[in-house]
TrEMBL record:
CDD domains the UniProt entry points to: delta_zeta_tubulin-like
Occurrences of domain Tubulin/FtsZ GTPase (ranges): 47-247
Domain of life, per lineage: Eukaryota
Name of the featured protein: Tubulin delta chain
Keyword DNA-binding belongs to the record: no
Native source organism of the sequence: Grus americana (Whooping crane)
Subcellular location: Cell projection, Cilium; Cytoplasm, Cytoskeleton, Microtubule organizing center, Centrosome, Centriole; Nucleus
GO molecular function: GTP binding; structural constituent of cytoskeleton
Coarse class of the protein's main subcellular location: other
Recorded GO CC terms: centriole; cilium; microtubule; nucleus
Family indicated by similarity: Belongs to the tubulin family.
InterPro entries the UniProt entry points to: Delta_tubulin (IPR002967), Tub_FtsZ_C (IPR008280), Tubulin (IPR000217), Tubulin/FtsZ_GTPase_sf (IPR036525), Tubulin_CS (IPR017975), Tubulin_FtsZ_GTPase (IPR003008)
GO process terms (BP): cell projection organization; microtubule-based process
Length: 453
């Protein structure tokens, strides 16, 4: 099944380009110990998901590019075409001469309704070019105006136009130190609206990716491109083909549907996080060896201690003892700092994946009590290595990983709202104080649900 990617705003378009680049680089890269037949089926499954063929024989990304300013889109189109490996459809984009000025209300209430017909026509056209549509993958920022405001509006339109299709929103969480003064307002409005229309939100935090670039990738002067390439690598490690059944002979045909089935058992819990291991500069790979037991041990501890990368993991955090009567935080049996999960998916790529013991991820104490651990944990595997890593693992987790940042964003936005700061910038575009209050209420409910896992 095919995925139509919708790149929204500057952030969405730049990341989207890097995602297609990473996928193409993986398909054309080294193949590990795979047979020719296996490589061909991997190649075909990847192509069906993300690209379509045209007469030129250069694969065309199944994507719609949207921004209110033309500069980033024209750069994105030309950079992709120059690669020679893939390109965008020159007619599948929409831009205007004026941006949203970092104002969510401008993107949502003005640009959205005004350009709805043109944007949705482009989406419809792209969807009709799929033999079988598996759903939509939107890429957007949460802090600005176009990506967040227009992105929330477009997601709502997708839900209305394609009620039975899966929608996964990839959302970039802003730097904690602040990019724009109203980013917390924009974030609260974006998340609360996406929570209504999307099937799941896959979140990357800018601060975390920046840390990975500095500490794991050893980059001295970190650019947006460096950050976007790390994000694209992580996304590719999830979306490239895998076997979803033990000893499977066919690559999964419905990646978005499979992800939702494994990770979103209840509509109250839609926040997905992503961790990758190992992650290092390419020139280090030749001198590094990895064992599956070591990688799995680190990945599990990253999960339970809520470490976003493999450096600086708190090894003191332990799962709670089920049935223990020792009081601790929140008067439950849960130790402080322990990250409880709703569901987890581990994706293994590379040699000897069939022999990897994942029993430690099936431990009932890792999960909320209302789900059977057998249902809460799943594993996908492929013997084909990914982006030059002989062995690599990705963890997609629906857990409490975002509680602290979410609580912080809502708290900061509420403090500004209580003093009526900058509200007039939103009301002049039709967003009323009641809309803010509805958004705060919706997110307080999300915080409460995840806190009580």
């Amino acid at each position: 099944m095919s995925i139509v990617t919708i790149q929204l705003g500057q952030c969405g378009n730049q990341i989207g380009h890097e995602v297609f680049n990473a996928i193409c680089g993986d398909v054309h890269g080294t193949h590990g110990l795979c047979s020719k037949k296996e490589n061909e089926s991997y190649h075909d499954a990847c192509k069906e998901r993300f690209f379509r063929e045209e007469e030129s024989e250069v694969p065309v990304a199944r994507a719609v590019l949207v921004d209110m300013e033309p500069k980033v889109i024209s750069q994105t189109l030309s950079t992709a075409a120059r690669s020679g490996y893939w390109k965008y459809d020159g007619r599948s984009h929409f831009c205007q001469k004026q941006g949203s000025g970092n104002n969510w209300a401008n993107g949502y209430s003005v640009h959205g309704p005004k350009h709805k017909e043109v944007i949705m026509d482009l989406v419809q056209r792209e969807a009709e070019k799929c033999d079988r549509l598996g759903g939509f993958f939107t890429i957007m920022s949460m802090a600005g105006g176009t990506g967040s405001g227009l992105g929330a509006f477009v997601t709502q339109c997708l839900r209305d136009a394609f009620p039975s299709s899966f929608i996964l929103n990839h959302v970039i969480w802003p730097y904690g130190t602040g990019e724009v003064i109203v980013q917390n307002y924009n974030s609260v409005l974006t998340l609360s609206h996406l929570y209504q229309s999307s099937d799941a939100l896959l979140v990357h935090e800018n601060d975390v990716i920046h840390k990975i670039c500095a500490q794991l990738m050893n980059i001295k002067q970190i650019s947006f491109r460096d950050v976007n390439q790390v994000i694209a690598h992580q996304l590719g490690s999830v979306f490239q083909p895998t076997y979803t059944a033990e000893g499977g002979l066919h690559y999964s045909r419905n990646p978005l549907g499979d992800l939702m089935e494994m990770l979103v058992p209840h509509p109250e819990f839609k926040m997905l996080g992503l961790r990758n291991i190992p992650q290092m500069p390419e020139n280090f790979l030749a001198y590094s060896t990895f064992s599956w037991p070591g990688l799995i041990k680190h990945l599990r501890q990253m999960l339970i201690a809520n470490a976003k990368m493999e450096e600086g993991i708190d090894w003191q955090v332990r799962p709670p003892c089920l049935g223990s009567s020792i009081p601790s935080s929140h008067s439950t049996n849960k130790p402080l700092h322990f990250n409880t999960s709703v569901a987890n998916l581990v994706i293994l790529r590379g040699k000897d994946t069939h022999s990897v013991d994942l029993g430690s991820f099936r431990d009932p104490s890792l999960y909320t009590s209302w789900l059977n651990p057998q249902d809460a944990f799943n594993a996908w595997k492929t013997p084909r290595s990914f982006n030059k890593y002989e062995k690599s693992a990705a963890l997609v987790s629906n857990s409490q990983f975002l509680l602290k940042p979410l609580d912080s964003v809502v708290g900061k936005a509420w403090n500004m709202f209580a003093s009526k700061a900058y509200i007039h910038q939103y009301t002049k575009f039709g967003i009323q104080e009641e809309d803010f209050l509805d958004s705060f209420t919706a997110l307080e409910q999300v915080i409460s649900s995840y806190s009580n896992l």
